[in-house]
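// run 5 | inverse folding | seed 20
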């Protein structure tokens, strides 16, 4: 990473970026990498937002976006640093997710292979309990007594009745 870009970071931000180095992420599991990804993404979003807001506020006084750009370099550099860090963490997270998916697929295939070869009663899949009856009896879905559609219809009728009554009262 460019030393000039890292120079704009404070100590806490440097430590956060240092956590994204490949050697530092080597011992992290998938959940830890997800947490790090979230922290880096939030920091990146913070500085991208600062950069955009500051540049947008200067457009009127500078006369254009291109003219307002050079005066806002600190936030832009920080956003670039965190963008690179986010790229590293995203790559690592993708690798871990691919590895986990491969292991899960292999585990499921092994379970499927172990289930084949015997008769119908030899699988280790637990039998599911019978479906419980619904607590609410009666109509469901569009035919329910209180569905969003019926509530809208009911409200429309009440409003129409109120308008008719107001018209009668005005006579």
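// decoded
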């Amino acid at each position: 990473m460019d030393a000039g870009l890292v120079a704009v970071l404070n100590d806490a931000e440097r430590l956060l970026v240092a956590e994204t180095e490949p050697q530092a992420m080597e011992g992290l599991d998938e959940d830890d990498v997800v947490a790090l990804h979230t922290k880096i993404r939030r920091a990146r979003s913070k500085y991208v937002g600062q950069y955009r807001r500051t540049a947008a506020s200067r457009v009127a006084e500078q006369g254009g976006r291109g003219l307002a750009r050079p005066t806002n370099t600190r936030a832009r550099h920080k956003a670039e640093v965190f963008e690179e860090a986010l790229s590293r963490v995203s790559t690592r997270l993708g690798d871990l997710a691919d590895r986990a998916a491969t292991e899960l697929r292999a585990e499921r295939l092994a379970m499927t292979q172990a289930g084949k070869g015997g008769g119908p009663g030899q699988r280790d899949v637990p039998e599911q309990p019978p479906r419980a009856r619904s607590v609410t009896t009666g109509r469901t879905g569009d035919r329910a007594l209180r569905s969003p559609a019926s509530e809208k219809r009911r409200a429309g009728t009440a409003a129409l009745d109120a308008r008719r009554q107001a018209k009668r009262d005005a006579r």
